[in-house]
Amino acid sequence: MIKLLSCLIPVKFLREKFRLLCYSIQVIFTAKFIGKNFYCSGFSTVNKNTIIKDNVSLNGLHISGQGRVVLGNYFRAGFGSLIISDNHNYNGEALPYDGTVVTRETIINDYVWIGARVIVLAGSNIGEGAIIQAGSVVHGTIPPLAIAGGNPAVVFKYRNKEHYERLKEKYKNG
Asked: What structural domains and CATH numbers belong to the chain?
């Protein structure tokens, strides 16, 4: 019995590693750059213009479109979130829009946490340390350390700056 149990432990470990690899396989083969300590706990997709910095954790994030997307250091994404990096061209030669797209750079800065099912629209910029409430739609700029939510996402609170800076320093030295 002990011999059988010792054989199962490595299999369970390998099964978990394989599961995590399956979740991140599209990201690994598609992203323009992936930093160190990348973690993916839910099937995620990115475009070829996605830059993933260090210590990023995705949980079913999908990036659509052709625009450049930057995910900052220590970025965390809740399950089922979406970043849209381009728009249909409604100023083109057809109605309601033509066959071209307008790409826009989308930046998510360091230490940002977006909750489950957040949608970030093309051209948005989420400031360092911001938190986006689950189910929100982000369009435009969210300032650093802001806590925002809704559709469209609006700032309703700010993080304690001194507390945030202490934790950030701890991460750097830890």
From this structure: 24-173 (2.160.10.10)
- The answer on pLDDT for 123 being more than 90 is yes
- Residue position matching structure tokens 């260090």: 54
Please state, in angstroms and rounded to a whole number, the distance separating the CA atoms of residues 25 and 148. 31
Measure Cα distances from 35 to 32, 57, 166 in Å. 10, 11, 24
Instruction: Assign 2 a pLDDT band (cuts: 50, 70, 90).
Output: very low
